[in-house]
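dumping the sequnces here before i forget
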Amino acid sequence: MLTNFPLLSLVIWLPIIGGIGVLLNGDNNPWARPLSLLIAVITLVASLGLYTGFDTATYQMQFVEHASWIAAYNINYSLGIDGFSMPLIILTAFSTVIVVVAGWEVIQHRVSQYMAAFLIMEGLMIAVFSSLDAILFYVFFEAMLIPLFLVIGIWGGPNRVYATIKFFLYTFFGSVFLLLALLYLHHVTDSFSILDYQQAALSMQQQTWLFLAFLIAFAVKVPMWPVHTWLPDAHVEAPTGGSVILAAITLKIGGYGLIRFALPIAPDASMALDWLVIGLSLIAVVYIGFVALAQSDLKKLIAYSSIAHMGFVTLGLFIVFRIFANSATGSGAVLAVEGAMIQMISHGFIAAAMFLCVGVLYDRMHTREISAYGGVINTMPKFAGFAVFFAMANAGLPGTSGFVGEFMVILAAFQANFWFAFLAATTLILGAAYTLWMIKRVIFGEVANDNVAQLTDINRREFLMLASLAAIVLIMGLWPAPIIDVMHSSVEHLLTQISQSKI
Amino acid sequence: MNQTLLLTIALAPLLGSIIAGLFGQQVGKTWSHRAATYGVGIAFVLSVWVLKLVAIDGETYNQQIYQWLQAGSLSLEVGFMVDALTAMMMVVVTFVSLMVHIYTIGYMHDDDGYARFFSYISLFTFSMLMLVMANNFMQLFFGWEAVGLVSYLLIGFWYKKPTAIYANLKAFLVNRVGDFGFLLGIAGVLMYAGSLDYIEVFAQAPAMSEKTITLFAGHEWSVMSLICILLFIGAMGKSAQVPLHVWLPDSMEGPTPISALIHAATMVTAGIFMVTRMSPLFEFSETALSFVLVIGAITALFMGFLGLIQNDIKRVIAYSTLSQLGYMTVALGASAYAAGVFHLMTHAFFKALLFLGAGSVIIAMHHQQDIRKMGGLKKYMPITYWTALIGSLALIGFPGLAGFFSKDSIIEAVHASQIAGSGFAYFAVVSGVFITALYSFRLFFLVFHGKERFDTHSGHLPHESPAVVTVPLILLAIPSVISGYLISSMVFGDFFGNAIVVHANHDVLAHHAESYHGVMGFILHGLTALPFWLAMAGVATAYYLYILRPELPGKLQQRFNWLYRVLDNKYGFDDFNQKVFAGGSLMIGRLFWTVGDQKLIDGALVNGTAKTIGWVSKVIRHVQSGYLYHYAFAMIVGLWLLLTYFVV
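..and the predicted 3d for all of it:
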């Protein structure tokens, strides 16, 4: 009986409808917070059903739902997940719970609108990850941005208008190409099914244009150098919850898009142009690593660190062609793609935690300038413990989830080209340098000033929030197998798809 | 030997660490140190049992504990491998750690971070055990980085001290430079051996040694040389070899017990252990062995010089550690792995002893660490004095004490070595003996003999430390004397069995084994050999300069001021790193950010686009003037154009 239960629809529409409910209840309603939390928790619990009920043996789409939406154009409400999307959906559901908890006391202004925005965004993001219809995907892909703009525009910092417009222009610029590519593919296949798109036979020229369109659309999201400059601005202006979602989920849609569209639809072009993506990824790791070192604003530093970490995702996805060329066994390629996936998931937790840590400080001191801090450990020892832990995770210390993806991608990169691995591995030094230098300046030392002297340590709510993230980061680092195992079939399938020429 | 036994050894210290670290406040000080100490104590007792199983019963162990992850046909696992090398390391690590735990009860008694400190040192013991017990490269890297983390936390233990938090960041980053090479080396192993499991990789070594890789167009490199040098770069970071040695002297900012445990006896020897473990790979690359040999020789000699002019009691011993690590590395380069790890073991005992002795002195001096302000402590601190004497004699290689056997076997091995650089290395290790004796006894005489130069205004005379401090000193003094007699089985016997692989054409120890006729013969031979007389000359020089003519060193310093300046600047490594690497990176970062991101991407592309659009719309806006005749005119022109297009 449960096999036909529309679980995906539930985790999409429950938070959306629930969010609208919270919104309609009005701002002075004392139930806005608990109700939002309840919805977020139920969604998370329901999303775990996707993990427990997941069949790891098949690459086929699971939890499939299909209904006609706009029959005249053969546009369908078609949902389904595989090993790529399922972990990202759970990550989304988890992050939303964290965001609701994080905003509990801090947001005093238009509470229900704030909570509703995040709940609705949750549903839309889950829908992006589970859409199997191109138009459905596109609609959710665009719709998802609206709550995010509102969150930054309403609850953001002083320069929020500039940041929002920059963010909007950048992503809209990318979306135009996405829409064109999707419509063109419809023209070729006479279908809007993404799976049909993946089957389409395309010439090299067609593939090249499609690939570039997808690359532009998703590179903005990842974000890849040089279309990354919206991210630091958006993060700096966004409220903590906005930063968490931005870092944890929104960026992942870029990586997911490359996996779902660019690679399987245009494998030959992906192979021909892999140097481009690899080059940009390595620039992201090295160049952005240096840029992060020079930051004096906590959030900017973490934003740049995010870009560098996402460089490993795109690197892992696009070195596979060269690994195939260099070795007979495909295990290096599996390592690369699974490393990229793990890096996305892990970054979702670690970056979220880092932004929450900044949020904890910002709520107390109302500044993000590193130089305004110093010696925080003296007044906030528990917080300092978490901050150092997450910093180490961000620096890719083994035993934390931050290590797993980087390790896998570096191991694989060596099999593509020694110098790829060489440049990628500089993150060991750069990542540690910018993260731990920041920790030294903010956390350690004598109490720097009176404001730091008056800080109070994290309360129970903040403790729970950080502790749950720390537990996940640790468990994923010590035993990543359960998460990686769900991807195997899908990864193998993707590798089969991209190793077969369509020309 | 079974899994439960080994898991207990590894996890007992972890449990102690968790109790002291997370529940330190609830259980209180006493139970914090008990939990940690019992945990390590259990690990020590069981490690001795494991050593017995390996050495006497001839057992070995190699099993998976759990699968970390699987990707394609590659399985990464957490598992234990115990052979003679591992068992020896386990005993050394847990023994020194246990001594340090007991010592800490006294040393850190009044510190606010008491429970935190115990938590860290137990966590260190766990990490170090995971490192030495690993049966694969992945877990080795885990342990490798984990000990680095604990080292970071412990150097910065007194987080209010600016020097401490500078030193711990420096230590972590320099180690990361080493790990950068190490990780690439591991990636190379995976690519060419197809596995990260030790046994499988070692089985592939002959095949790997025939492969080449092109790094720069037109130049073929031996894969094995590349991999071994990359792996050794990791060892250079952890075992503080030139030029990655710069973090170790600064690490003395941490509390003394951890200087003994981590930065002398165990963690810094991880690199030596690792290369020994990888001997089946290194044996295939004489290039890599030469590289190892030369780096080790430079470290052994030039770091010894720096010990001569330091005035901080801990820094003198720290430079001594650097120099001794150089000796061990030289042994590895000469393929005398057994001699290298033998020196690792004896050094662990006597250097931990010297550091803990220094700590005892520091307590007596109320945290004064400048040896110029000590002197004459012999009569106040007899136990510390005698144990320090044993430690110092062991360090300089006095015949019959532990260091003599290990150091002499290294020197003899290098003497017999044929690989490139062995001539220089032999010179370095032999002259190093004189330097070692000179700085060791300079320290010894300045601290324990001569005039009392310490401040007695407060009316308190120095006194011997309590039993929790002196008992570990005595317990460490014992192996500092007797552990050398294991030479018969460890260096010239077959104690290590298959754990160490040496190719016949490099086997310098076998060469010596032929002329080895027992411990007494070795000692007698030592008494007539050059190193012994160099060591005695060093002691005599120290006695002359610092007891008989104490005004001379100052004059020499003025006379050879340029030399003193070079040594005082530590050859300029720190300044260079600070300016070029730290300053340079920051400058590059700022440049990329302000020019790349802000000017080019944001200024020219993003806002440029916005400005262009703004400009275009400003122009276009004039078209929508609101005047009817403008629109009418446009319509007529448009109509005319369309008509022309369609008609013509």
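The mean pLDDT of chain A is 91.
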